[in-house]
Amino acid sequence: MRTLKIHLIRHGATDANAQSRYIGCRTDLPLSPEGVNELRALREELDYPAIDCLYASPMLRCRQTAAVLFPGEEINAVSDLREYDFGSFEGKTAEELESDPHFLPWASGKLTAPPGGEENSEFIKRLCVGLHKIVTDMLEEEKHSAGVIMHGGAMMMLLAATAVPRLRPVEWTCDNGRGYSLLVTPSLYHKSGVVEVFDRI
Prior knowledge:
Layout: E1 4-10, H1 15-18, H2 33-45, E2 53-56, H3 60-69, E3 75-77, H4 103-107, H5 120-141, E4 145-150, H6 152-162, E5 163-164, E6 179-184, H7 186-192, E7 195-200
Parallel strand pairs: 1-4, 2-3, 2-4, 5-7
Antiparallel strand pairs: 1-6, 6-7
């Protein structure tokens, strides 16, 4: 059975990124003009991988990024790749949340969900479901290489859960418009859910 290549790419910058705000699945922000220009410059500078299918989180910032980096490609939306639900932390900065009694326990990992937000375990589970949908679709459609435009936090959590080498989520950070290339061996993936990171974008 053939090996698949899946290229995970973080969406371009938004105004909220520049302000260091927690923006998850509740706020459907567009890319900022600066974010669009940065992506266009990256497209000229970097050798983005050739793909034969394109997937993205359905959120506007991801769909816009997909259109800039891979113009003319049909975008297949994968709902399970949406960003984390930050609950009552949505739209706020760390400084604005300093007085919230739930923030520091959440930020330190002692609290597994923000008030009204998503449990970390449920977030990871749905991201893995999203990846599985992509792998299944590629196999059924006989595709070999896919681009996947997603959110930085979602990418970190997905790779920490599935990828080798084994790293903590924070060790999978990347800049806007950058990401990681994965090799997916279907037999290994279906047995253990493991993918291999072989390059950075």
